[in-house]
C-alpha cells in the first residue's frame, strides 16, 4: 500500500449514507475544495485516525470526479466508497455487508444485430486491502456497536456498477446482467467511478463497501418502507470505518518498514542543522529510491524567498491534512506573510524582523516536525547572511 498522508477518504452517494459514516467520526472540521466541494475531516475512535468524508452524489461519473478531487486534496492512504446496494443472490440477507472483490462497469458493450455484447471492464480490490478486510471480518469486532441482535454477515465478491436503479428480477437488463455478470453479488451506481479514479492515481487502493437494502427484484419500495436503507447504511458505515482504521494503522506510513522475518523496524529520519561557519556535508540513514547531493544552499535573498514560497505550500498541506487547526494556520500564515514582506524589503535592512517572524512561525508549527526543521534551516541561513 502507498505511503502518504495517513488519511482515508470515504465517499458516499446519498445523504443517509453520509450521515451513517459521519456518526462514526469525532472532531469534525470542514475542508472545502477550491472548486466548491465540501469535505469534512474527522477522527476515528481512540486511535485518532483521520478520515476525509465527502458526498459524491449518484452515478459513476460524479463519483469519479469527486474521488479525483479528494485524492488531489488529501493524498490518502486509501479510499472507500460506502453505502447501500441491491443484493443479487438470495443467500445475501437484507442488512448484510458486501465488500467488492471486483467492481464491474457493466454498461460497457457493443450493440450488434444479434444483441448487446458485453465489453467487460473491471477493477479488483488490492491484495493487502483485501487481506485486511477479511481479517477484520474474522475478528468479529467491527459490529459490536451496532444496535441489532443478529450481527450482519460480510460477503466478499464482485459488485456490478451501472447508471440505472435496478428494481426488477425479470427485466431485459436483469437477465443481461445475470448472463454476463452472473457472479456479481450486488448492484449499485458509483463503485466503478471511484475505482477508475483510484486506478488513474498510481493504483490508489479503493474498496467498495455496501449494505444490502433490497434485492433488486421489484421489492425496493416495500423494503424502503421498512427502513432497510438506513439500517443497511449503518452496517456498511460500521464495517467501512473499522476498515479505514485498519488500513491507516497497517499502512507503511504508520507501521514503519519490516525486516525479512516480519519484525518491525523503526523509520529513520536524520536531521542536522549547521549554524555559523559550520556545514553539513552529507548524512543519511535508510535511503529508498534516488538521491541528489548538491552544494550547500546558496545564501541569497532569492533563495530565501524561494524557501518561504515552498514553506507556504507545505504549510497549506499540513493544514489540509489536519496537522494544524484553523486558528494556528491563520496565525502561521500571518507570520509567513510578515517574513515575506521583510524579504521583499531587503534582508540586510529587515534581517532582525525576518528572524523574529520566522521564529514565531517555528513556535506555531513546532508540533509538525518537518515544518519546524525547515524553518530552523531557513533561520540559520538568514542569520549567516550579511
Automatic annotation (TrEMBL):
Source organism, top-level taxon: Bacteria
Which molecular-function annotation in GO is an example for this chain? methylthioadenosine nucleosidase activity
Q: Which residues cross the membrane?
A: none
All residue ranges annotated as the Nucleoside phosphorylase domain in the record? 8-243
Q: By its UniProt entry, which Gene3D superfamilies does this protein fall under?
A: Nucleoside phosphorylase domain (3.40.50.1580)
GO cellular component terms attached to this protein's record: cytosol
User: Which biological process, per GO, is one annotated for this protein?
Assistant: nucleoside metabolic process
Database matches in PANTHER family: 5'-METHYLTHIOADENOSINE/S-ADENOSYLHOMOCYSTEINE NUCLEOSIDASE, 5'-METHYLTHIOADENOSINE_S-ADENOSYLHOMOCYSTEINE NUCLEOSIDASE
This one is known as Purine or other phosphorylase, family 1
